[in-house]
Amino acid sequence: MGGRFDRLFEALMDAAEIVDGFIQGVSRGGREKQSLLVVGGLMAAILLIFALAPGPYEPQIPCPVDGTVGIGLAPPLWWVGGGPATPVLSSIGLDPNSRISYRVLLGTVGEDMVVVGTARGGRGRENLVINLTEPLLPGTAYIWRVEAENRLKKMSCGDVWSFSTRDLPEIELFEADRSVVGLGDDLTLCWSVADASQVEIEPGIGPVSLRGEATLSPPERVTYTLVARSFAGESKASVDVEVLPSFIIDSMAAGWSTAVDGLGSRVLEIGPVPGADDDATRISIDLVPGGWAGITKSPSRRGGGLDLSETDGLSFSSRGSEYAGALEVWIRDAAGTVYARSWEEGAVSMNWTRHEALYKEFGCIEVDGGRCTDLALDLSNVSAIYFVVIDRKVHRSGTTGWIAIDDLAAFRLEGEAAKI
């Protein structure tokens, strides 16, 4: 039918030109002129009908509704179109609004709109739609309109409408309380996400709520990645955590209790003081000749004893008064076996000094309340650690002084040093 209409319209236009030529200069007999005038009048009437034929309706009632905010990135664009019928032309199948073409133009605010899709329709009010072939940008304001054109090339343009797409999920917070931890030490990972339907953290955590925290103990260097998803897309954030061969057993800020020999030696005071890094624990002692006093703590990991089996020694920082006596570190396992490493009197400086001791430098001093046997220390289940000051030189009046301890850690040797 479309080809028929187009051919007829072109023929009518050609005929009109011929008639006009005849009227302007061609001289013929009266009957011939009369016939031509009748034909010309008929064609003029038909052309007048076409000229007066209505164009398409103006596209209206958009969806998304004008001014909509927060929609997805691939919305279908709907509108109501169509065109009125022309009864005379409809009766002979030549209605110009029987086929209407639509062009959909889209662009961001402040930019030119471009054609993003086309559709076809016909007479009467009808809903029309196009689906976008490319996703839109998140958090962006768009404008769009629809242009309708019928078979006579008559056009109607809709208003310019607007909408904006939804922002990507917002990662408000994703951080670890420490970027460097020791082997076996814990860190806390915190996060907060808005406008997301799904959040997950990898490796090893999986789906999580929009806000929360997790306590982790990474065995090696790791990058934690948070992915927040919504129908607008996804956002990512990462946190790098370095795992050192040594790890902090205790920051020495608090939680230590006193230990004395039962012979009259005393811990005069125990409390926090500024340390090498953060706070440290300081003890003031008064020792009887040959006596000892100190502090102790029962460290643990996840309900059991402290596992030091994958490490090679202990390290800590210390400073003390001029007369504080000899210093010893004791390690006690769950079976009651105690091994010690000594630093003689004068080894503790009045300035902060870092000390390291391999486990093979420790010697047995006690087994379950008795004297040592050949039992080895069970480093996989350490129940207590002591810092003890001893009057090893048996001063006549005993020893009085103080010592501060900071950052008790275990360390692991690397390479060839680990084989020694």
Plain-language structure description:
The protein is mainly beta and 420 residues long. The protein has 4 domains: 51 residues; 106 residues, Sandwich (Immunoglobulin-like), CATH 2.60.40.10; 75 residues, Immunoglobulins (Immunoglobulin-like), CATH 2.60.40; 172 residues, Galactose-binding lectin (Jelly Rolls, Sandwich), CATH 2.60.120.430. Helix content is 12%, strand content 47%. The protein is built from 3 helices and 31 strands. Helix 1 crosses helix 2. The longest helix has 24 residues. The N and C termini lie far apart (97 Å). The C terminus is likely disordered.
Provide a brief overview of the structure.
The chain is mostly beta strands and 420 residues long.
Q: What is the overall pLDDT average?
A: 83
The structure class reads: mainly beta
Q: So what's the CATH class of the largest domain?
A: Mainly Beta
Q: Considering DSSP H and I runs of 4 or more, what fraction of the residues is helical? A: 10-25%
* CATH fold group of the largest domain: Jelly Rolls
In the CATH hierarchy, what is the superfamily of the largest domain? Galactose-binding lectin
Q: Roughly how many Å is the radius of gyration?
A: 45 Å
Count of helices? Answer: 3
Q: Write down how many β-strands occur, each being a DSSP E stretch of 2 or more residues.
A: 31
**What sort of overall outline do the alpha carbons produce when their principal axes are compared?**
rod-shaped
